[in-house]
């Protein structure tokens, strides 16, 4: 049996543990009942994940003494993250007569985690919540930090709550069955933590990324380090009034690219947008004389080596012009009172929050990047 | 000009003030801009309240330098507290491009406050919220303490969040135009605070209730004392894991009576249910030899004097039998892991949380009360 690593998210009376290891789904029942005695659960998942992991989770829960009061399997995909399915989940949880100290268990990727966490956050004004992320992206990003929510016609993730889980079980073994493109997309977020403030982690990934892709202890250690990095930022700024914005490195450009492809996953998935966005953030920082151009080259080389797109031109199909991309950026929710905020960097692992970045500079940079 | 009283709700970094006085709506702009500089607002109200107070509020806001970015007037009534209108409010607030530090302003009674507060709690994972309660019930109850929410087909207030307002403006002058039945219903909740833990306040109300009904400083002082009482309980137990349940004095019986009348306000409104429920709680406590029967007599005498119903028989129309009422009680959301929890009392101002009350005792008591 491989090792299990525990990362604590230090949030006072909302503190919780993230367990990272292989086989955690099969042992979910004993783990949950040891930490949340007497809890009953409703499992929220999607149809694809259900086909691979639902029976294993159910038997893991029940053999560990955790009663499954309801199972809700929703259509897979971003479109599920809306009011209609939120209402369906809430209704099913209430219908199972779960109480505040019972738990909603999210089994799936970011869509399921965000939706189920939001439902857990609003049923009876907040019930217990357990995350079992089944994608690399969810294991290192969305399942840590308590952000939950759904999309609005006016933008992604505009509706939700901060609702911390009681426990996160990141089963690194389930990632073996992920499509390679999805694993790579998650890897972009993993590498992000090195770029934000852990230069040694980025250097470690440059050397060891093949082992991370292969599985085993290197993968567990990489996920754990990413969770530690995120937990540190979240503990400093739970409600995103300051430092937490660092987690958006690569995301302002990335979101604009996602919007420009109308969120068509065949062309660009979120992690790919972040990969290109991180390279753009490093190149933009170099252009503003904040960082050496060599750092941007190094970031691009690594992301390219693992097979990620790194240039806008890598996105298949027509892309809009620089003006339109800037429009998408200013519409992004991270705009505060009209000022343009970017995460820029002084080098690998030295990112910072830059406020009042002139939009003319962004526009000129985008024109060159598209040229 | 009559006095303005400030009650602070001490919740650390979520602390806020309740201002109580006459004419606060007309001065809303200067008050809000002094406390939340630069904020823009979306006003949520209902059509009835809008007819009386919306223009006054708008001009009060704008003359004080607060821009009104959107106004949402919803149908009046409990049916508005559901997912469809929640979505409408959220969409309108997002459509007005309000940011986290802009505010949703609730102008209305409990339905509007609960719905608008929930919307404020979930737009961008929580934006600022200002309550301007226009009913006595909302001024002394729902606008203090941060409970927000909507109803489910499975029960009232089962979906929502804790989201504290930044400011509450309780304009005692607007109560002059309330229908007397609605004022009385709010008065039941006001008197409740005396019965929970403020015997002197209850005695003061017994002497001064006519002045409270008439308006002026006695009304302001009564509302302020009720808000102080509620703020004390909320500060002790923001998330309702303990003492806050005391605020449910009279509510377990009251909710069952409301459910038994299918929430038909022509037969019974919430405050009336609470009035009968408080008398039942005192009589039930006497029956269990916890309190003197004289206290129940005194409570009933006072509530009757102000014109409130105090007996199940006072409710017009057919009522179900004791068994059915017990069913409604066990379905009430305040049931924890199947145990029956009641707020009982050892006398006026000496209420306490009683867990594991035998349902057989409740049933026998209800049979006698209906007989």
From TrEMBL, chains A, B:
Q: Which UniProt keywords apply?
A: Amino-acid biosynthesis, Aromatic amino acid biosynthesis, Cobalt, Cytoplasm, Lyase, Metal-binding, NAD, Nucleotide-binding, Zinc
Xref: InterPro entries: Dehydroquinate_synthase, DHQ_synth_AroB, DHQ_synth_fam, DHQS/DOIS_N, DHQS_C
| One Gene Ontology MF term | 3-dehydroquinate synthase activity
Instruction: List the pathway annotation.
Output: Metabolic intermediate biosynthesis; chorismate biosynthesis; chorismate from D-erythrose 4-phosphate and phosphoenolpyruvate: step 2/7
Domain 3-dehydroquinate synthase N-terminal per the UniProt entry, residue ranges: 72-184
Instruction: Check the record and name the SUPFAM superfamilies matching this protein.
Output: Dehydroquinate synthase-like
* Residue intervals of the 3-dehydroquinate synthase C-terminal domain: 186-335
List locations, semicolon-separated.
Cytoplasm
TM ranges: none
**UniProt-listed Gene3D superfamilies:** 3.40.50.1970, Dehydroquinate synthase-like - alpha domain
Q: How is the cofactor bound?
A: Binds 1 divalent metal cation per subunit. Can use either Co(2+) or Zn(2+).
Q: Which reaction does it catalyse?
A: 7-phospho-2-dehydro-3-deoxy-D-arabino-heptonate = 3-dehydroquinate + phosphate
Which co-factor is required? NAD(+); Co(2+); Zn(2+)
Q: What is its EC number?
A: 4.2.3.4
What this chain does, per the entry, is described as: Catalyzes the conversion of 3-deoxy-D-arabino-heptulosonate 7-phosphate (DAHP) to dehydroquinate (DHQ).
Which PANTHER family does this chain map to?
3-DEHYDROQUINATE SYNTHASE, 3-DEHYDROQUINATE SYNTHASE, CHLOROPLASTIC
Per the record, the similarity remark reads:
Belongs to the sugar phosphate cyclases superfamily. Dehydroquinate synthase family.
Question: Can you say what this protein is called?
Answer: 3-dehydroquinate synthase
Q: What species does this protein belong to?
A: Mesorhizobium retamae
Q: Which gene encodes it?
A: aroB
